[in-house]
Amino acid sequence: MSDTQKVYTPSTPLPPARTGLLTAFEPGTRTLEKGFQIAPQFRPIPVDIVFEKDVAVQLRDGVTIYVDVFRPAGSEKVPVIVAWSPYGKGQGTSVSVMGVFGLVGLNNNVVSGLAKFEAPDPAYWCANGYAICNPDIRGCVDSEGNSVLWDRQDGRDCHDLINWLAEQSWCSGNVGMSGTSYLAVSQWFTAAEQPAALKAINPWEGVSDVYRDLVLRGGMPDLAFAGLLQNGSFFGKNNKEDILAEAARYPLMNELWENKIPEFERINVPAYIVASYSNTLHTAGTFRGWRRIASHDKWLRIHNTQEWPDYYDEANVEDLRRFFDRYLKGQANDWESTPRVRYAVHDFEGGDQVNVAAEEFPPQGAVSTRFYLDGRSRMLTSDAPAADVAVSYGVANNPNAVSFITRFDQVTELVGYPKAHLWVEAKGADDMDLFVLVQKLDAYGTPLQQFTTPNHSAMIHDLTDHGATILRYKGSDGRLRVSARHLDKALSSVDVPAHSFDRVEKLAPGEIVDVEIDLLPLGIKFYPGEQLRFVISSRNLMGTMMPGIAEYTGANSGEHVIHTGGEHASYLQLPVKLS
To answer: Region 446-472: what's the mean pLDDT?
Structure first.
């Protein structure tokens, strides 16, 4: 069983940088009066709020967790929104959270300081007739038990909390969930448990498969962010799951990793899902969740920035309230007329389109189109070259990459799922770690990029010249360890290949194999004369997803050979939508 496969390591207490003004364990109820301001840099609250602190909730296995509840003063029963994550419920005023806001260029006064990190702000929601529940989940801060990292255990525990909340005297019986990143992932797991009181979810960017999105993307043990998450977020008094040790012990898909994938087919509640193309941690998982959940009433909005500025944007908060007003309060507000999909199109030149309405994603009119690699001209062509031409690079050389370019002669949009189908060979090695990237170039061949946050300072330039991908969008990337090339036929589609990761198939000398590599979904516009460059490399083209963490280096040696044309017609498949 997966629980017996779990590895644990001792937790440590919450450090000072993660400690906020409300962190101390102080059970009790008090009223925060209108105008209350927890600290000068935060927004005052606009209404009286009842604050129930460190309320004990017992889970089905006897473990007790502690939650904070913020609710409007008065006797009216209200729905409640749950923010489930390991990030301490009192961290909203911590140096760490304030520092993150500063990094991306958000002023701390966009929130009241009562919100958990990446969570809905009680100041806004209580003023609009909702309660907010901030739990310290199993094993975190003062809560009992051993903590786990993105697991079906999260779903079972949150199911129990939701049942408890629905029975409280102040609650209308309707519960929703909202939040970004970890708070989004926990919603997949919780909704799959189908608690009766859960009426709507709002996953706002998050992984949906810990193996494929976080720990071993493309079959490569790129563990830097997993280590940051494990060692920088799960603070408590007992033990925490050691996902780094698990990845070393279980490098192939097994029951442990399968239990870190939600049962999408059991998710049937109304869902308002928010995604971006640019978050190399969250993008694939958010779109996967959108595709696979069983909910009939589901909406997708794809934005063009970074999750935190997008989540706290005033117009977006109001949009989310319309969704919750419909499904948690039962208001007939015509939410159902909202387009099922609203997507963004980047142009990297200040003319992005947002909220483009569609009934599906990819939108109607986006046609999967093959661009064949021509090794002789280094162009991407509409027809497969007749001659079989190989191009190669030594992984220890400079350059350790090859690229191919096409120029557009009319306005062209790419909106949907790209993939690469490559014929490859290794010389002097029995495996290959391949990294691929689709870039936009201007008419003169200059790569175009785009900051995703309001902060465009010199420091952000330094941090993002190589790495910190969530802060600066450079294009759609993918990666694959060639020995992990076996496809899962049940999960794969024509547009989105999915690998089984349950076997290792090394390469024999002289063996040429075909591989399919999924790249992150994209929405990019090209104007006449502009170009697209497709890069294949043995090096990590994007660098790290966050600043300050170690970069993964591909496990490569020898020479990589990319075959093109003839019997080995490698191609890049792109979703072309002509304007």
So the answer is: 94
